[in-house]
Specification:
Elements (H helix, E strand, L loop, with lengths): L12 E4 L15 H6 L1 H4 L10 E4 L3 E2 L11 E5 L6 H13 L3 E6 L9 H8 L11 E2 L20 E4 L4 E4 L14 H16 L4 E4 L42 H12 L6 E4 L9 H8 L7 E3 L11 H14 L18 H5 L1 H13 L5 E3 L19 H5 L43 H5 L5 H14 L1 H5 L1 E7 L3 E7 L4 E7 L5 E2 L7 E5 L10 E2 L4 E6 L2
Parallel strand pairs: 1-2, 1-12, 2-5, 5-9, 9-10, 10-11
Antiparallel strand pairs: 3-4, 6-8, 7-8, 13-14, 14-15, 15-19, 16-18, 17-19
Helix pairs in contact: 5-6, 10-13
The structure holds alpha-D-glucopyranose (GLC).
């Protein structure tokens, strides 16, 4: 079976964090009209990036405790972002440019302000009580077990009026839904149909691992490797029982089954691989859930150490576990992780763009990645992310990678007319911005545009065979070919000119550092070079 048939020609997915992309209303926070205004940037003109799809992080009604990942009404747009009509207009304008639109579904938890939860809190015998996970405390009043919240502290919050604890894998204002309850599965299915019928083409499904919990609520074992004060306190325990239970497959299956009621919808799981189960078993399992419509993101590149051998090894290993017809969705950055340039440096990030955009499947590009945006400095008074506020000082905060998109060198980088934006701009916006880079053939933006366009022009990049050609301490190269024509990608992970020998007859399509390569024999420091071989 070919995965995601309707999406198989999608060359790239561009992730938009709606608070930070473009502010049409002038209140300092991005919105849906703002996205619509900028669709030409994505696709439709010669200057466009050329991406076939966008994924928009949550824009639903929300008290914004976790900036939209706490949904209080799954069927409405938050007034901060606009209205349902604005969304209809966005879809229509996107489709007019042949851009597919992917939304973000948060099935593990609702906001504590969601009507279901408010009802559940009203009495122990409320109809909606079993939509959530309420339990009695221990005899001494302690929480039901030792499970932890990702955002710090116990995963249990006591509700005084009804005398029970409820479970929350994230904030106390994000109570977990009880996916064992068939009514919850039905509700989520209806929500999916609501958006699919409105024209949404795909869904990114948030935080799936946490949906599957041990029904006996067994304690998670203590993590002996945990270093107090040094690492994230969430990892004090090994999350053996609080997530990723056997039943997860059935919960995910119920959502994917709804997507497969349609001919052309896709579903992407936000799944973080862990070290509790062998990687092979995890990969095979997740690729097995309704493979015709659904597949996981791959986040390994966001945690891979810089080096030719480490990247080659990670990619080879993952690919070796995939079913033959699996489609891969590599993310090199997103709204939860430090930006590529900050992690590795400017030239290194350019080279990694070549890697990401020459791998098979469908790459996912986080807004600003194509400009080489960096993490911004956030002063203590400007911190917004609840993660940083609750577990401070460990570098866990996600504000630095969520700052406004840099369109111009002008007022608020062209993002907003407001005097103040919800997060500050990164200091480099006067030089790192769309306007400046669109005029510069050696810019980050031009490199991304070139690679994304190449993926459109040559189907082999998305769908053909991948084969490692060579790996040593400095170089990593791989082939993408269908037997008739192919591409050789050469990445130099060192800061030196490195000798290479390559087959004759290749045409240089891309150089990450903008070199001409009139003669072969060396690859420039941190260059990523793509050679095309036609028959
Ligand atoms: C996912 C999201 C993250 C959010 C969390 C809770 O990991 O990517 O931003 O905070 O889920 O919904």
């Amino acid at each position: 079976m070919i995965l995601l048939m309707a999406w198989r020609n999608v060359n790239a997915i561009y992730q938009i964090y709606p608070r930070s992309f473009n502010d049409a209303s002038g209140d300092g926070t991005g919105d849906l009209k703002g996205i619509t205004e900028r669709l030409d940037y994505i696709k439709g003109t010669p200057e466009s990036l050329g991406a076939d799809a966008i994924w928009i992080s949550p824009f639903f009604r929300s008290p914004m405790r976790d900036f939209g990942y706490d949904v209080s009404d799954y069927r409405d747009v938050d007034p901060l972002f606009g209205t349902l009509e604005d969304f209809d207009e966005l879809i229509a304008e996107a489709h007019a440019r042949q851009i597919k639109v992917m939304m973000d579904l948060v099935p593990n938890h609702t906001s504590s302000e969601h009507a279901w939860f408010q009802d559940a809190l009203s009495a122990r015998d409320s109809d909606k009580r079993d939509y959530y996970i309420f339990r009695d405390g221990g005899p001494d009043g302690t929480p039901p077990n030792n499970w932890l919240s990702v955002f710090g502290g116990s995963a249990w919050e006591f509700h005084e009026p009804t005398g029970q604890y409820y479970m929350h894998s994230f904030l106390p204002e994000q109570p977990d839904l009880n996916w064992e309850n068939p009514k919850v599965r039905e509700e989520m299915g209806d929500i999916l149909r609501f958006w699919f019928d409105r024209g949404v083409d795909g869904v990114r499904v948030d935080a799936i691992r946490w949906m599957g919990k041990d029904l006996q609520l067994r304690n998670d074992p203590i993590n002996e490797q945990y270093i107090p004060g040094d690492s994230d306190p969430y990892h004090m325990v090994r999350h053996e029982y609080s997530r990723n239970s056997e039943a997860l497959d059935c919960y995910l299956g119920s959502m994917a089954a709804v997507a497969s009621e349609y001919d052309d919808k896709a579903m992407l799981w936000e799944d973080h691989l862990d070290d509790l189960t062998p990687l092979e078993a995890q990969v095979r399992r997740i690729y097995n859930v309704h493979p015709g419509v659904a597949a996981p993101f791959n986040f390994q590149m966001m945690h891979t150490e810089f080096g030719s051998r480490s990247f080659a090894r990670t990619i080879d290993e993952y690919r070796s576990y995939l079913p033959d017809d699996a489609r891969t969705f590599y993310c090199f950055g997103n709204h939860d992780e430090s930006r590529l340039v900050t992690r590795f440096g400017d030239r290194q990030a350019r080279m990694l763009a070549v890697l990401q955009l020459m791998l098979p499947g469908t790459p996912v590009v986080y807004y600003g990645q194509e400009l080489g945006m960096q993490d911004a400095d956030i002063a203590p008074s400007q911190i917004r992310d609840p993660f940083e506020l609750r577990v401070p000082g460990r570098g866990l905060g996600r504000d630095p990678e969520r700052t406004p998109m840099q369109w111009t060198a002008g007022h608020q980088a062209g993002f907003s007319e407001a005097e103040e934006t919800w997060l500050p701009l990164a200091a480099d916006y006067t030089t790192v911005n769309v306007e400046a880079q669109q005029r510069s053939p050696k810019s980050f933006l031009e490199l991304h545009r070139r690679l994304i366009t190449l993926r459109k022009q040559y189907d082999v990049i998305g769908s053909s065979h991948y084969e490692t050609a060579h790996v040593d301490d400095d170089l990593y190269s791989f082939w993408r070919s269908d037997g008739v024509m192919g591409f050789l990608t050469i990445l130099n992970f060192s800061d030196k000119f490195t000798p290479i020998s390559i087959p004759e007859g290749g045409v240089v399509e891309v150089s990450a550092q903008g070199h001409d390569y009139t003669t072969y024999g060396y690859v420039a420091p941190y260059d990523g070079v793509v050679l095309r071989y036609s028959q």
